Structures are given as structure tokens and as C-alpha cells.
Amino acid sequence: MAKRSDGPPPLETEQKEFITPEQRQILNLVDSIPLQELETFIEKREREIERMGQADQPDNPLVQQILSLEERRSELIEQLVNENRPFIRGSFNKKTHKCGKKNCKCTRGEFHKSFQLSARVDGRTHTRHIPKSDSPRVERDTKRYQAWISSRAEIVRFCTEQLQLIDKRRSELLRSYPEGQPFPLPKSWEQNS
Ligand SMILES: [Zn+2]
Fold it and tell me: Ligand 1 (ion): which residues have CB within 5 A?
């Protein structure tokens, strides 16, 4: 802090015009306060202002995490909306079996093949037979469904994670007013927020 001279500083003639009687009064008041007291007051106030109002660093780790999740999430959204081919829910299964007839090729290890589509609905597994001619299409379309569903699940995971980070960020930025007398936290705020 700059050292003050003992009396009020002499004013330039141009400056005089810009000082109102009220401002002059304040300046005189400031001059009447002992220097040490004034310095302590200003330092305390500066620290308060720093705590209350200062923006934190632009590369805040939480903000960076939120942004990087946002980037990965938007890639997944793009994948989802760009998928416009139809798909089939369920899993495609290939089975091999012996028919039990004597002298059939299956007795020599060339098993019969059959194809099935199965899916769980409300806790119950449903199964459908797939004709051999449809099997390539059903296999391809169920794989497409599974890829789509797993992207969807990841989006949900990212959103949840992102919200947790956003709530943590809220805690970082939150200041109680007046200082030291915070409002109680709403019940809906999780422990981590
Ligand atoms: Zn057979």
C-alpha cells in the first residue's frame, strides 16, 4: 500500500472541480482514521471481496470434467440420431442338434442348425423360431439394436455423472450470506452436493 503523507494531499486545480462536498467530507473522514487501522480495514475488506466475488481459475477441474463428459455424450447422441436403419429387439441364438434318425449326417458330426430370437419382457423370456433364410437379417438387426441400446445406457450414465459434477460445482461457487450463517441445505440436495 502506498504511504500517505500526514495531511490531506494537495489537490490540482483540475481535480478540484470533480470533487463534490460529500466526497471531500469522506476524504477528510478517511484522513482522520489512524493509518494502521485503515490498512487493517482495507486488507480485511480485500480478503472478503476475494472470497465473495472473485471468479476462480478458468481451468477449474470440475468444469473441465463436465465439458469433457459433454463432448463424449454429444458423440454418442450423434451416433444414436444417425442410426436410421430398423433394428430388432432381442438376442439372436444359433443352436446345433442331432435329430435322432439313424444314418443321418448329424450322426457323423454334421449337426442340424436352428435359429432363435429371444427377448425378456417383464421378467419373462420370449422365444421365436427364425427360418434359415431370415437368419442373416435378424442377426444383423439384433446386433444393431444392442449397439444402440448400449449407447443409450452410456448416455444415461454420462448424464448422471455430469449432474453430480454440476452439483459439486454448485458447492464450490456457493457462498453463505451473511458469511458464517448459511441457510440450511434443502433435503433434496444429496450428500455429495
Ligand atoms: Zn439328423
Answer: 99, 104, 106
